[in-house]
Amino acid sequence: MFSSKEMPSPSSLFSAYASIATSFMLFRSMANELIPYPIRSHLFSAFRFFFKPRSSLLTLVIDESAGIARNQVFDASETYLCTKVSPNTERLKISKTPREKNLTIKLEKGEKIVDFYDGIELKWRFVCTESQKNDPNTHNPFMSRAEKRSFELIFHKKHKEKVLSSYVPYILEKSRAIKDEQRVLKIHTLNASQSYGGIKWESINLDHPATFETLAMDPEVRKAVIEDLERFVRRKDFYKRVGRAWKRGYLLYGPPGTGKSSLVAAMANHLKFDIYDLQLVNIMRDSDLRKLLLATGNRSILVIEDIDCSVDLPDRRLPDVRNNKQHDVQLTLSGLLNFIDGLWSSCGDERIIIFTTNHKERLDPALLRPGRMDMHIHMSFCSFHAFKILASNYLAINSYHQLFPHIETLLNNVDITPAQVAEELMKNDDADIALEGLVKLLKRKKFQEDDLNIQDSKRPKIDGRRRNPVRTPSRRKAKRRYL
Ligand SMILES: Nc1ncnc2c1ncn2[C@@H]1O[C@H](COP(=O)(O)OP(=O)(O)OP(=O)(O)O)[C@@H](O)[C@H]1O
Ligand SMILES: [Mg+2]
């Protein structure tokens, strides 16, 4: 800083500039006569460089394309800036395609936006220029449009490091989160109407409302599952470092109606991953399975429901039309597992595979061996805690109700699935009536179970053990699953 004594007066400054300008003119006219053109031009540009007034601002130009590829920073900035529209913005573009959930908002040419990051002021400008006809880049598909689009990001030079190492990565991360939020999830199922051999994935929008908040499950288990999923998606570098494919396997087991399919949907909604619902009954050969698995996308969940019903694979027979015989079907559990562990998981990123079963005890040991399914999640009968979540979801009861203690005692003594409780709670809008209905249902079930136990105690013992009454519901049930 200058002290007032050292500060040059405006008149002295003016005379200094005037003498520099006069010397420059003099130098120029002498140089024109004495110095040959190329050297003269270098001298002049050096002179200009030293005497040009310096700007304290730095401008980053972010073009739409980087060579022949799209510039990710441009795309991310476009997405990010939509969330920064201020009352001063004068023109915006909006659009919506049938596949999109929300309106897309974009800046119009020349619009400016001011953003603040960690106390730094950042000025953005959206620039569109006509691209020249003989532009060498016109072979580029993004440049063949008549206009060249870019963002200019202007800030004080002293923040260069911070902007490049922190603000730009922040924009990339933020735009990914925004895109995930807007993404319409898909559920892919096998197209069974195709003739055999032409089987392929078919997708529709996944509109399943299940979330971890609405799922009635043990809070500890819920927390563990969410943490596991989040750790998995964060750990790309870790998987690379330890030489493992970036995949995670979950086994969901429990009686029908305890929320296994709902948990799959909640996981997909949480991670914004598509679901591939693989019904093995429709696949006859390992080769078809490979083709289908290789056609699945990254950031997806592959679900094989009721794996205990599907693994009698080697017994399935495929009619041979030509010879009117039956062929052994060439689809085996080990083929499936080896492929999932091997090629499939290593040719994509962020793969999750989920098996569900009502009968964990019937599963092939190959599925249960350590390292195959990373987490075994037990979905069980409705606990009192799970009931309170359902009461909050279905009846908006978020605090105490006089029937709660009674319901708690009954739930401790009766096996009832969350699906059955949910169905009962839906029967009436009036919370008191719905809860009374539930109490009646629980009492009825308790009575039936007591009755069964009495009958059971009268059964003769076999090998010193009393056989359990078989209460397994049909496994070939029609399912609504995710739709
Ligand atoms: N834990 C739960 N939390 C909230 N709702 C549940 C839960 N379990 C079941 N439901 C309700 O019951 C319906 C059926 O549940 P879901 O299909 O998820 O059960 P499932 O365990 O997959 O059964 P299955 O073994 O027959 O496939 C769901 O649509 C949901 O409304
Ligand atoms: Mg299910």
Walkthrough of the structure:
By secondary structure, the protein is of the alpha/beta class. It has three domains: 57-130 and 146-182; 186-312 and 331-378, P-loop containing nucleotide triphosphate hydrolases (Rossmann fold); 384-453, no CATH class. It contains 15 helices and 17 strands. The strands form five sheets. It has a seven-stranded mixed β-sheet. Strands 1-8-7-6 form a four-stranded antiparallel β-sheet, covered by helices on one side. Helix 13 packs parallel to helix 15. The N and C termini lie far apart (71 Å). Mean pLDDT is 80; it is low at 1-6, 315-322 and 466-480. The protein binds adenosine-5'-triphosphate and magnesium ion. Residues 215-217, 256-262, 358, 379, 418-419, 422, 479 line the site of adenosine-5'-triphosphate (ATP).
Helices and strands in order, then pairings?
Blueprint: H1 10-34, H2 37-51, E1 57-63, E2 65-66, E3 69-70, H3 72-81, E4 92-95, E5 104-107, E6 112-117, E7 120-130, E8 147-156, H4 160-182, E9 186-190, E10 201-205, H5 219-234, H6 236-241, E11 247-253, H7 260-271, E12 274-277, H8 286-294, E13 300-304, H9 307-310, E14 317-320, E15 325-328, H10 333-346, E16 351-357, H11 365-368, E17 375-378, H12 384-395, H13 404-413, H14 418-425, H15 431-458
Brief overview:
This protein is 41% helix and 19% strand.
Ligands in the model, by name, code or SMILES, are:
adenosine-5'-triphosphate, magnesium ion
Number of domains: 3
Q: Tell how many strands the DSSP assignment holds.
A: 17
Strand content: 15-25%
Instruction: Find the CATH topology of the largest domain.
Output: Rossmann fold
In angstroms, what separates the terminal alpha carbons? Answer: 71 Å
The CATH fourth-level homologous superfamily of the largest domain: P-loop containing nucleotide triphosphate hydrolases
How many DSSP H or I helices?
15
Lateral arrangement of strands in the main beta sheet: 10-9-12-13-16-11-17
